[in-house]
């Protein structure tokens, strides 16, 4: 595991996290435990990946900005 996130699509994970969050809310409204549980776990893992992707993108942007000066 190299720790690189350059091959991960930020937009795809934003859509995934948003969709899973909406399914989680739907499950809560319907009080459907399997939907709640499945989407809670998926949200947790997908949001973690998205966090690291955004963090990596921000570091690259800062590095590129400092190299321009």
UniProtKB/TrEMBL annotation:
> Per UniProt, which keywords does this protein have?
Membrane, Transmembrane, Transmembrane helix
Highest taxon of source:
Bacteria
Does the keyword Metal-binding feature in the UniProt annotation?
no
Q: What InterPro entries does this protein map onto?
A: SWEET_rpt
Membrane listed as a keyword: yes
Which cellular component, as a GO term, is one annotated location? Answer: membrane
Q: Where are the transmembrane segments?
A: 12-29, 35-54
Q: Which residues form a coiled coil?
A: none
> What's the protein name?
Sugar efflux transporter for intercellular exchange domain protein
* Organism from which the protein derives: Leptospira kirschneri str. 200802841
């Amino acid at each position: 595991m190299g720790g690189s996130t350059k091959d991960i699509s930020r937009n795809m994970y934003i859509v995934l996290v948003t969709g899973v969050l909406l399914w989680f809310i739907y499950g809560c409204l319907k009080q459907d435990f399997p939907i709640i549980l499945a989407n809670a776990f998926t949200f947790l893992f997908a949001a973690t990946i998205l966090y690291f992707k955004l963090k990596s993108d921000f570091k690259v942007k800062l590095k590129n900005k400092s190299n321009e000066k």
